[in-house]
Automatic annotation (TrEMBL):
<dbReference type="InterPro" id="IPR018247">
    <property type="entry name" value="EF_Hand_1_Ca_BS"/>
</dbReference>
<dbReference type="Pfam" id="PF06078">
    <property type="entry name" value="DUF937"/>
</dbReference>
<protein>
    <submittedName>
        <fullName>DUF937 domain-containing protein</fullName>
    </submittedName>
</protein>
<dbReference type="InterPro" id="IPR009282">
    <property type="entry name" value="DUF937"/>
</dbReference>
Length: 205
């Protein structure tokens, strides 16, 4: 079975990229790598949830095509470390009004705290978008991921598979479920808020 999007991107961010993000956040490289491993499923799982709706897939596909296609991950990393990349704006599209909850949940799950977790999400969001655009539109990769005719439906299918993988993971799925409500009304229920307590990744490690 091919690596999931999360696994593939996480592998690309190991080493020097993770070290650079660790320096930016003021944490140890090992902690940064672990936090990246927790943040990517959250971002890609949320994108998969959004893309499960036809309009959501169409909107995301258009954004990838217009703003993120043809970008090299290394240059995107350099831009976001320099304060560019519009990470906050991208997170607003991914999480909506649940963006603070996503940072809080990730911060509790990783020990980073909400502020640094929010910074990490802002660093990763443009990288995730550039990565998805590369998977969709790079002809060398499109045949293995998106077929010969990538489009909104294919993007939705690919991200839907990723969302399903994340949901099956006890740790990542718990965090994702705590951030994204289950009924699609944009509100977090009592059960969701309780999941944001101390045991987000209980049993995962």
């Amino acid at each position: 079975m091919p690596d999931s999007l999360t696994q593939d991107l996480a592998a690309q961010l190991q080493g020097a990229p993770a070290q650079r993000m660790a320096q930016q956040l003021g944490i140890e490289p090992a902690q940064a790598s672990a936090a990246i491993g927790a943040a990517l499923p959250l971002l890609l799982g949320a994108l998969g949830r959004n893309a499960s709706q036809p309009q959501g897939a169409q909107s995301l596909y258009g954004a990838l095509q217009k703003d993120h296609a043809g970008l090299d991950l290394g240059s995107v990393l350099g831009a976001v470390l320099g304060g560019g990349g519009q990470g906050g704006q991208i997170l607003g599209h991914i999480f909506g009004d649940r963006q603070p909850r996503a940072a809080q949940g990730l911060g509790q799950a990783t020990g980073l705290g909400g502020d640094k977790a929010g910074m990490l999400l802002r660093l990763l969001a443009p990288i995730v978008m550039a990565y998805l655009a590369k998977r969709m539109f790079d002809k060398r990769q499109a045949g293995t991921v998106a077929g010969d005719q990538p489009g909104p439906q294919v993007l939705g299918d690919v991200l839907g598979q990723e969302h399903a993988r994340v949901a099956q993971d006890r740790g990542s799925g718990g965090l994702l479920g705590a951030v994204l409500d289950q009924d699609g009304d944009g509100q977090l229920g009592i059960g969701d808020l309780m999941k944001l307590g101390g045991g987000l990744l209980g049993g995962h490690r």
